[in-house]
Design the sequence.
RNA sequence: GCCUGUGUAGCUCAGUUGGUAAGAGCGUUUCCUUGGUAAGGAAAAGGUCCUGAGUUCAAUUCUCAGCACAGGCUCCA
């Protein structure tokens, strides 16, 4: 607990508005303005460590009495003041302690004891006397004997309290990504961080391959990748407007210096700052700044859903800074990228345009123009799309890419959003042809959407049989008997030499081929090669291709050539 | 966050109307076996029956609270 004791000529305060949820309503008396003269005003912050309320109240009362005695104050005003500490106790605890303290002090001989209401924004005014003892700050701690015992961590007990997450599979389809992910050992969840996937070695291969593909494509299309801080001062989010509208969904972090930081829930504010870091010309536009930084959003617990809705994720994000007359061409450019990407995966999807909502910011004319342009683009594109009138973000219209999961539920994957607002809030500008300063428009766009969700949907659509370039293990070699192990090792070596990036492994266990095939099939390995006496003798490979029980026989060189082609061309 | 369900071994699950009931298969380790494309045989190890409180002589089992997962709402600046 921290206190600041002020000996005042007077203190006047009046509650205005609730600052916290779940705070009881004030009585008529409490609602009124309070004016106390010749008092000791005690500003109080109750902190996390103040667990033993009786003892801490006892200490507080002792201190107040002592200070009041020194300055000859007969009136006491307890004033909850959160700003003395960055490590505040829960409101419940604070209320409890304040009430007890008021009660205790009333038992003493003070003529007046008042307490300002807790959990309200208050206006207040006071005049401090200015003598040497009129301002005293103190930290009040309870020196408890049993404290060391209390703080001793029983790791083993804690391990029982948080464990690996148990999945309730009763309502899931067989091709649910959570089941496939477990079978293929791609990712897991743990109670240590609900809604935040642990990417296991095999899953991270898929993740990184997707990003690699994305990078290759976007580098050629004039995108420039950046990386920016994951934790930012709250001021950044006050500028962007997230603090006001989105704070409840953010993870907040505090530091000792009383500085509040937010863990970033989206990349745009940082991208704005990068744009702003140099003077920009119309010749720089479109300026496409991409990134895949990790984002954290405190999604409601009931909405979490495997990889499809998580609290920690990465997007294949980009912020494209353009001039107003580039909207149409930039959207075309992005829709083309969508085609390229989704064609590769052969997944069904549709577009959904969200137009100007009832509540919107900015110029109606600009909105209408943008809405119309986007409608035209979609109409002329001949792509499957729906229009959701009034469903745009309040800062601009958006085009979403929609896909279905194994239970037929629709999910937003990629999204292309126009933003007229943030460039203004960040006072972005570029110089146009005539030397005039203009504000750019920003297109926020993701193609995969979140990598997490995309992998989830991809697993469900493919039943885990990922295209070979994405498969965590692309080839597995099985030995028929122990006699064939040496030859099998040679095969692996040769394939590895011919295709250096090949992900190949072996199963030389002493068990039947059937059992080994079964395990390899559960892992959805595209190519399963069995090496037996026959193959050794004939110098061939017996290949089980993508779950097909009809075994193909081929020469090593032929196989490696076509495999190499399949992988590098991402077929 | 709300409503409804679920939580037993690394995985999939059985079971106890409160008491010699901590069980199976898979997986793991060891041994036997040397096999032709989704499970060859045997033995062993592996448990805080999600966590905490309560009721009881006795709780994995009943009650309450919490946590997590699932479905549905809501939300998705």
Sequence:
């Amino acid at each position: 607990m921290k206190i600041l004791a002020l000996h005042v000529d007077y203190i006047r305060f009046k509650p205005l508005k609730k600052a916290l949820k779940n705070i009881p309503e004030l009585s008529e008396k409490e609602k009124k303005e309070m004016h106390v003269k010749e008092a000791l005003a005690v500003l109080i912050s109750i902190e996390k460590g103040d667990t033993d309320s009786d003892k801490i109240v006892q200490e507080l009362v002792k201190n107040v009495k002592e200070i009041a005695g020194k300055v000859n104050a007969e009136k006491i005003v307890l004033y909850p003041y959160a700003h003395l500490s960055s490590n505040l106790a829960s409101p419940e605890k604070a209320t409890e302690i304040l009430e007890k303290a008021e009660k205790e002090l009333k038992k003493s001989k003070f003529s007046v004891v008042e307490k300002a209401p807790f959990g309200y924004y208050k206006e207040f005014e006071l005049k401090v006397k200015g003598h040497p003892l009129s301002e005293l700050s103190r930290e009040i701690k309870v020196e408890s004997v049993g404290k060391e015992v209390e703080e001793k961590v029983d790791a083993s007990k804690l391990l029982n309290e948080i464990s690996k997450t148990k999945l309730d599979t009763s309502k899931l389809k067989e091709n649910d990504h959570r089941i496939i992910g477990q079978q293929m050992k791609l990712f897991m969840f743990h109670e240590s961080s609900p809604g935040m996937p642990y990417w296991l070695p095999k899953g991270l291969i898929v993740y990184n391959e997707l990003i690699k593909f994305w990078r290759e494509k976007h580098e050629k299309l004039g995108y420039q990748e950046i990386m920016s801080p994951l934790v930012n001062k709250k001021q950044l989010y006050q500028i962007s407007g997230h603090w006001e509208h989105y704070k409840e969904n953010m993870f907040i972090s505090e530091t000792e210096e009383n500085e509040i930081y937010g863990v970033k829930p989206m990349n745009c504010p940082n991208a704005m700052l990068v744009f702003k870091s140099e003077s920009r010309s119309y010749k720089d536009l479109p300026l496409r700044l991409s990134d895949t930084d990790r984002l954290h959003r405190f999604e409601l617990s009931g909405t979490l859903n495997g990889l499809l809705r998580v609290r920690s994720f990465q997007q294949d994000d980009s912020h494209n800074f353009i001039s107003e007359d580039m909207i149409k061409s930039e959207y075309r450019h992005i829709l083309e990228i969508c085609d390229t990407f989704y064609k590769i995966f052969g997944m069904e999807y549709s577009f959904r345009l969200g137009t100007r909502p009832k509540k919107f910011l900015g110029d109606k004319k600009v909105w209408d123009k943008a809405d119309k342009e986007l409608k035209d683009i979609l109409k002329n594109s001949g792509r499957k799309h729906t229009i959701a009138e009034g469903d745009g973000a309040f800062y601009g219209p958006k085009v979403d890419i929609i896909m279905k999961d194994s239970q037929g539920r629709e999910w937003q994957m990629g999204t292309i959003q126009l933003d007229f607002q943030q460039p203004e809030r960040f006072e972005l500008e570029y110089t146009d042809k005539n030397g005039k300063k203009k504000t750019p428009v920003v297109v926020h766009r993701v193609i995969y959407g979140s990598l997490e969700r995309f992998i989830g949907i991809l697993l469900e659509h493919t039943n885990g049989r990922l295209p070979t370039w994405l498969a965590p293990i692309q080839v597995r070699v099985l030995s028929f008997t122990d006699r064939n192990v040496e030859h099998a090792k040679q095969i692996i070596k040769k394939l590895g030499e011919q295709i250096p990036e090949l992900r190949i492994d072996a199963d030389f266990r002493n068990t039947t081929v059937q059992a080994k095939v079964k395990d390899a099939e559960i892992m959805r390995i595209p190519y399963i090669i069995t090496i037996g006496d026959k193959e050794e003798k004939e110098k061939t490979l017996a290949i089980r291709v993508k779950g097909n029980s009809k075994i193909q026989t081929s020469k090593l060189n032929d196989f490696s050539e076509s495999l190499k082609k399949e992988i590098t061309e991402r077929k």
Summary: Confidence is low (pLDDT under 50) at residues 144-150 of chain A. The radius of gyration of chain A is 32 Å. The domain at 177-462 of chain A is CATH 3.30.930.10 (BirA Bifunctional Protein; domain 2).
